[in-house]
Specification:
Blueprint lengths: L11 E4 L6 E4 L11 H9 L3 H4 L10 H6 L3 E8 L5 E10 L1 E2 L8 E2 L6 E5 L7 E9 L5 E8 L6 E5 L4 E7 L4 E10 L20 E9 L4 E10 L1 E2 L8 E2 L4 E7 L7 E9 L4 E8 L6 E6 L3 E7 L4 E10 L2
Parallel strand pairs: 3-12, 13-22
Antiparallel strand pairs: 1-2, 1-10, 3-7, 4-6, 4-8, 5-7, 8-9, 9-10, 11-12, 13-17, 14-16, 14-18, 15-17, 18-19, 19-20, 21-22
Length: 316
């Protein structure tokens, strides 16, 4: 269903008994597949800090779901540097992403986003990875969390030379871990990037959303009723005017399909909600609901491994 997993990266911290009792572990570093730097340039230039990352205040909307799971991890990440961070990779080895609580595409300097994952099976835990490229460099910060059903929680935050990433808390079955990045670049060089793989699950849906609304679209919701998010294929946090975004979900289990929805809020008011359902048996179905004064056109969407394209445009 998914491509071969990358190896875990080297530095991690294990919690034994209390949050203050730690010991290091040494799994091999898991290297991420970076997205194209050119693709990020337009969005990064016009992205306001408020749209890049929400402050880590209040309780996430998915908190009740995580708390009701056997195991969960809420990651509270603080970027206390003077550099913007660009997400290049996210994936779960175990568990499911929390609804409406995905890692952001961008983390502005001196902001603190949150995201989370939880167990979604019998006697299972949750484990995940998210990597951020430091804007203007070829350097990457590697984040890892693991809350197994049996055994100790472990975490890792591997920062490049010139930076430090501190980890605190993270104990318990429904854990919150705090990761704080500080420091500055040891050197600045141009970055290079690769391309993510495509899914080979029994059922998958790749969604393309083109924004001709004349307004910026900021992701305010994303969840799956069935299936899992494909590797490194989460809905983008921001789609600028005249740009496109893409994401993908896939089946996860015997004779199952995938179903989900993503909601974007328009700058200046209005929403766009895209829904998809690719069942194991039966016909694929889609919807795209937009506010008054806009229209949403659909193309494609047939097949077990479907590709569907939506275009949001202004009508008034």
């Amino acid at each position: 269903m998914m491509s071969a997993r990358f190896a875990r990266f080297a530095r991690s911290i294990r919690f034994a008994g209390s949050a203050s009792s730690v010991r290091s572990a040494g799994p091999a570093r898991r290297r991420a597949v970076a997205l194209s730097v050119a693709a990020f340039a337009g969005a990064a230039a016009g992205l306001a800090p408020a749209a890049q990352a929400a402050p880590a205040t209040g309780t996430p909307a998915s908190a009740s779901l995580s708390a009701s799971s056997a195991r969960s991890v809420a990651v509270a990440f603080s970027n206390n540097t003077d550099q913007q961070l660009i997400r290049t990779y996210s994936d779960l080895s175990h568990g499911c992403w929390d609804n409406d609580s995905l890692p952001p595409d961008y983390v502005a300097k001196h902001t603190s986003p949150r995201w989370g994952s939880h167990s979604c099976g019998m006697l299972t835990g949750t484990e995940g990875y998210t990597n951020f490229k430091i804007a203007g460099t070829d350097q990457t910060v590697y984040l890892h969390w693991d809350n197994p059903y049996s055994g100790h929680n472990s975490y890792g935050c591997d920062a490049p030379a010139g930076y430090n990433c501190a980890i605190s808390d993270g104990g318990g079955n429904n854990a919150t871990v705090y990761m704080t990045l500080t420091g500055g670049p040891a050197r600045l060089t141009a970055g290079t990037a690769g391309v993510a793989r495509t899914a080979t699950a029994a059922r998958s849906t790749r969604v393309y959303l083109t924004n001709y609304s004349g307004r910026s679209l900021v992701r305010t919701g994303a969840s799956l009723s069935h299936g899992v998010w494909s590797e490194n294929a989460l809905p983008p946090s921001l789609i600028n005017p005249s740009d496109s975004g893409t994401w993908q979900s896939e089946s996860d289990g015997f004779m199952t399909g995938t179903e989900g929805r993503t909601t974007y809020t328009m700058s200046g008011g209005g929403t766009v909600t895209v829904s998809w359902d690719n069942p194991f048996t039966g016909h694929n179905s889609y919807s795209c609901d937009v506010s008054t004064g806009f229209a949403c056109d659909k193309a494609g969407g047939d097949g077990d491994n479907a590709r569907v394209a939506f275009t949001v445009r202004r009508t008034a």
